[in-house]
Amino acid sequence: MRGGAVAVVGGSIAGSAFAGAAARLGAERVVVLERSPGRLEDRGLGICTHNDRFAELVDAGHLAPDTRRHRLTVRSWVTRAPAGRGDGDGGTRGRGRLLWAQPFPFHSHHWAVLWQALRESAPAAVEYRLGSTVTAVGDEGGASEAGGNEGGGNESGASAGAWIEEADGTRTPYDLVIGADGYRSVVRAAVCPQAVPEYAGYVCWRGSFDSALLAELPGGAGVWPEEECITVCYRGGQVVIYRIPGLTPGTTQVNWVFYAPTPDWLRLDGPTAVAAGALSDQQLDGMREFAERQLPSYWAGVIALTPRERTLLQPVYDLATPHRTAGRLLIGGDAATVVRPHNTSGAVKALQDAHAFEQAGRRLGGGSWSPLLAAYDRERTAAGLELVNLGRTLGRAQVTGAPDWSVMDEASMAAWWREQLTGSGGFGGHALRRTG
């Protein structure tokens, strides 16, 4: 058995999944260091999992069969009608003109509900430390250190262990350090310092709110069936809107992602975001006015219903690392690959990273951590690059190089979609690799 102590930097979905995997592989102690001082239930963003990917993750033991989720069956692509056709909605009750009703076999999730399910299933060996900010990590064998040399790539090398340093200067040794600390990863800076997120040239505004508020719109919630995901297309962007489970069982929330041009006021000094509640009145009003100009009236109304404290801005980034390990350091989730949300694969990607790590350990049996890291690196580096490339393709096709929606119909939409996925099985995530 490998034994020893493992540190996981970052306690969200990827971190929780890796922590469980490390414990099941025999680590005597797993410490999850999460910089947020409170619990993470307030992260109300929506995420989706393809039905097949969800079933695979349940079968592999990473998700419980009764994990709360909302069923989606169809993705309706709509757009405003050309000028001169009524109010510009081109359809009934402000929904817009239907371009394509695409079969959409997905489940939607509330981020916090999915995270809580992973947290509650953590083995007893896993210890969570909230309010712990990791400022540096390194490898005792000298393979890598944050701010130091680029180090040993995916060498299986002879490092004796790794360490983390916290904000108070305390340095603690570990047998393995796993970076699941997102797109601004401290661990990635040690493993792969040359890899930094690249701005895609546009942003996504995001928001969520209780579905009961839909009653305030003309036509109420009845305009929008429960199992329908909406994609509203306009020149230069799109809005994706769907329901997710609420924090309280039996309730639902509206979740939306609004891809849009970079606001004039946004200054990008490296990877950044504007947190929920931090937008000014002027910034929020500008986004809502833009929605009124670009979207059919019902969907513009959905955006306007969202409270300030539930609205945020995320610039869109890409990142593919050339390797994921150095000595006794490893990265996964968004620390290793930042994939545009168009792929609908973020949560699946994180869980599959942890699955690949665990499966590599089971194939290799006992012994040291190093061979396991090398096997994980070989498998997931290539898979991550493929997902990033697909995200770029989808971003060009749907946002920066989108077609003239006014001339699109069902047949042309279906052909356009097939062209985006040519040579890739990664929309919604790749099929899970299973090993005996």
TrEMBL record:
Pfam family, one: FAD_binding-like
Start-end of Gly residues biased regions: 139-155
Residue intervals of the 2,6-dihydroxypyridine 3-monooxygenase substrate binding domain: 199-262
Endpoints of the signal sequence: none
Region of interest (Disordered), residue spans: 138-159
Top-level taxon: Bacteria
Protein's name in the database: 2-polyprenyl-6-methoxyphenol hydroxylase
